[in-house]
Amino acid sequence: GEPRDLTQQVLDKLATADAPLNTAEAFPDASQAEIKAALDRLASRDMVAYETLESEHLLLTPEAKKICAEGSHEFKVWDAVKRKGGVPVKELAKEVGAETAKVGQNVAFRNKWIKNEGSVLIPVAETVHDATRELLQSVDKTKAVDNAKTLTELKKRKLVTLAKVIRYKVQKGPKYARKMRVEHTDLTADMLASGDWESANFKPYNFNALGASQNAGALHPLNKVRAEFRHIFFNQGFVEMPTARYIESGFWNFDALFVPQQHPARDMQDTFFISDPAMADPPRDDPEAEAAMEQMEAGSRRLFASPDKPEPKPRDYEQYWADVKKVHQDGGFGSIGYRYPWSAEECLRLVLRTHTTAVSTWVLHRLAEDPRPARYFSIDRVFRNESVDATHLAEFHQVEGVIADFGLTLGGLMRFMEDFFGKLGIENLRFKPAYNPYTEPSMEIFGYHTGLGKWVEIGNSGMFRPEMLEPMGLPRDLRVYGFGLSLERPTMIKYKVSNIRDLLGHKVDLGFIEGNAAVRLDKN
Ligand code: PHE
Questions:
Q1: How far is the CA of 244 from the centre of ligand 1 (A)?
Q2: Residue 307's pLDDT is what?
Q3: Is the ipTM of this complex over 0.90?
Q4: PANTHER family per the record (predicted)?
Q5: Are 348 and 279 in contact (CB under 8 A)?
Q6: Which of 126, 254, 360, 398 could form a cystine bridge with 356, CB 3.0-4.6 A?
Q7: 482 lines ligand 1 (CB under 6 A)
Q8: Is the pLDDT of residue 106 over 60?
Q9: What is the pTM of this model?
């Protein structure tokens, strides 16, 4: 039921007590929480002073309780043998039960209560003293034994268990009174007018109170880590890319990135293809995407765009399409190409985007209208047709950054990564040569995670290839590099989640989502 307020009862009992109160005796039926609440309330007002006494009680197990009621195993064995004048060894279990026969026989022999005559047990003692039973009866009463050896023995025989008990020793405090004084919680205009405020007794603030729990929504850990990443990007002048569309054509997800049409990533094993509609229109002006980009750039654009930005000229998508085809099939822009018959149909298949680089590609082709230094980022969902395990789902979030500038070098990318990951508390980066169809050189990024105490792969990066950038119409001397990582990995590390299903999906514990701390991407 409702917890009781024992405040007044404590004051009453103290009024007549001539020694400190022991709460176990004074309030045998009250819960520890009820007692503690009353004591804290009174102690915070100096009306009582109390000490916490911790001790351990011995409790009888069900087997021990049975012994208290019926006698020990050895007693039962002796009793049966005595009553019958003799019991064949083989029949003892039938008389007293298998367990009692086994345990009790040994002790009864040791105590010289019974002996063997051939294969028959016969009584030796006329009367016996059932010490085990008496010991347990005394434990039941006093909750203790007087020596450590007996305790070890009883624990080993699983006859007792230890339980911790907390009691309090309570005394009157300097401000003890038989009744709590009325406590005001507010200073009112009336009190000021009448002068009562001078003698009024105000309730002290309880700075330890936890506060009422708010029945409110909570941000998912992924959202919190995402917010931190966005903060880092915005602080460095990045513009967010519009990533609202999960479905892309092969063109934006693969072909425009110089991913060959036979690449394993374009296989059904790795990519989810859309069946209805199965095909996209060829790339063309996209007012909706344009509008989303305009909106996201608002503000930051003015900082970075050339002041005399030309009116966007209509893009020649036929040329772009033809150049993408050419660079795959025949080569161009200084590249020998892949030299395979390029299929328009393959290029127009609709897919769930497998990386946010599809969006970066769209944004970069748009940058070609007014080539200039630019920084873009995105954090959103991508899809891969992979087998699901403790650390992988078929969908996850990518954090991606793209930097365009004249005269960029690979060393600059490494330096940028060091700064960027340094802000997440990941230092001493290591770079390993890797392969992406759309970047050359490419590097996997490893970082030493101080919290985990080991090297972890944290991202993938590289310089976008001319075969990707030049068909867009970007000038040769405008270099672009990019990097990507998953949002899930740092989130799992941060929140110490080892199974992705504890973070996403129907098995997630909502208590974990509500209760976890706001993230700071700090040193651990
Ligand atoms: N698209 C890459 C991935 O999915 C990440 C990346 C982005 C690599 C940009 C290089 C440049 O892992």
A1: 18
A2: 60
A3: yes
A4: PHENYLALANINE--TRNA LIGASE ALPHA SUBUNIT, PHENYLALANYL-TRNA SYNTHETASE
A5: yes
A6: 398
A7: yes
A8: yes
A9: 0.64
